Amino acid sequence: MCLNRYYTADGVRIYSQETWRRIAKTEGRELVQRYIDPVVAYYISQTKADNHAVREASCTCIAELASKIKQEAVQPYVTQLLQTLIVCFRDEAWPVRDAACLACGSFLLCYPQECRSALETLYPLFFNNLGDCIPSVRQGAATALANVVRAYGTEAYHVLEPKIREGLTGVQHQGNVHYGHSEWTAATRCGQTDWKFNKPSEPWELADGCIHLVAELAQIPQMAQDVAQLLPLMAQAAEHKHYLHHITLLETVCKQLPSIARGINKRAFKPHLEKFLGPIFYGLSCENGLTSSAASQCLNQLSGFLGPSILRARVEQWNCRYLEQLDANIHIAGL
């Protein structure tokens, strides 16, 4: 019942969550702690289930042990649980790999000393997910890697920084690959994707994952200066339009830029604003509705963060021809 609270099928998940609340009431954590030994044994056994959804739920439950259960109760099992997650990290099903990735990030954050010896094994797995063909897997890897930085500080960032720079600059080498309709649909509509769907990673996908990672790192106060130094590369990555799916990367930039700006603060962000105006206005006039909407919301959020007059002055200084588009976007947003 505890495991099925995270099962992918709505009926099973909702029923199990409600039943668990009725039985455990407010003592769910205490029950897990009291019976931690059989709970751990069961979770580990279910990571070997034939059903990929059960394996995925098991990884999520193991992550919950790290984040919600008292450390003294879980600590004796950390090594065993982490090794189980590493096996799941190599699973053939992308939802299992995604759940294992997030769970590993939680364990590294909560038990940094106990998990340190596994870093050499985990970094390549994290980086593989960061460039995965499934968008949610890339986002999960970014979240997990940010937790690694929270756990190990600059030591971890020095490992991540070369990969981020490699990913952002690698877009220039992206070929104009065209996937079949079924492949592209599977890769972009994660909720309806074949759980075994896989294809070789493309340079733009790694760049997309790196942008998510930059956004996650921006939420760590001590990383603000380092993140600011990555913004020129991020802007350059958004400028490349020679490949089919550049609009997807641009959508990610537009969605994440306001969050990055808020994370590193106005003073650090303002010197880099003009570098992004070209890609943002290109996205605003894009025929793709998702990218155009993301660019519109990006401008509105930056206006709210920096101040409408400051943003308008920067746009005018950069290229006064775009003031009409900026004003029209603000007018539409106010309707």
Question: Mean pLDDT across all residues, rounded?
Answer: 92
Oligomer type: single chain
* Unreliable segments of 5+ consecutive residues: 180-192
Order of helices and strands: HHHHHHHHHHHHHHHHHHHH
Helix percent band: over 70%
DSSP helical segment count: 20
How far is it from the N-terminal to the C-terminal residue, by CA? Answer: 47 Å
- Gross morphology is elongated
Class by helix and strand content?
Answer: mainly alpha
**How large a portion of the residues is in β-strands, by DSSP E?**
under 5%
Tally of strands: 0
User: Radius of gyration, rounded?
Assistant: 22 Å
Largest sheet: none
InterPro entries: ARM-like, ARM-type_fold, HEAT_type_2
Protein name: TOG domain-containing protein
Pfam family, one: HEAT_EZ
HEAT repeats: 122-158
Structural features, described:
This protein is an all-alpha fold. 74% of the residues lie in helices and 0% in strands. α4 runs parallel beside α7 (94-110), α6 packs antiparallel against α7 (94-110) and α11 (154-169) runs parallel beside α14 (224-239). It is elongated and about 65 Å long. Pfam families: HEAT_EZ (PF13513). HEAT repeats lie at residues 122-158. This is TOG domain-containing protein. InterPro entries: ARM-like, ARM-type_fold, HEAT_type_2.
